[in-house]
Specification:
four-stranded parallel β-sheet, alpha/beta, 35% helix, Rossmann fold, Alpha-Beta Plaits, 6 helices, 183 residues
Amino acid sequence: MQKITLLIHCEDQPNIIASVTNFMASNDGNIVYIDQHVDREQNIFFMRLECEFASDSFSLEEFKQLFSSTLAEKFKLDWKIFAAERKPKMALFISKYDHCLYDILGRYNSGELHLEIPFILSNHLDLKPIADNFNIPFYHVPVTKATKQEAEQEQLRLLESHNIDFIVLARYMQIVSETLIDK
């Protein structure tokens, strides 16, 4: 059995959900999870879908090509498909509050979260002992008005060097710039 995760975002438009779910069904897929949301202010559609394929002949690369030519071009989708065995890499950005950090790390430690946490980044040193207790590398990148751009460049360097897929702001008490969000 092959399991994939599909992530989509694009301009909101009619028939995206029906088209994607029908595409999965017509390719012998069984949808086991689907969630979608529309940001009305920005008119952006988001979807996360998990699907299983029982066929031994399922090819992820062929499936991606077919999805691209059939749906992605039609709806102008920004999309990614991942094999389920691949664990996405999540970076945690924190400041001084520990309750969110403990919650996430507890879930991570118990195996509830299917992901990797290559590092924790903070603008303070207060929570470094927690990262150490969970054996997760900790990076201290202080941020002041004078060093904000320099700090952001270091954050981007770390994200790229660790091949991070997404960031969770676990009570990170800094405004995150558009540059970092776009990346």
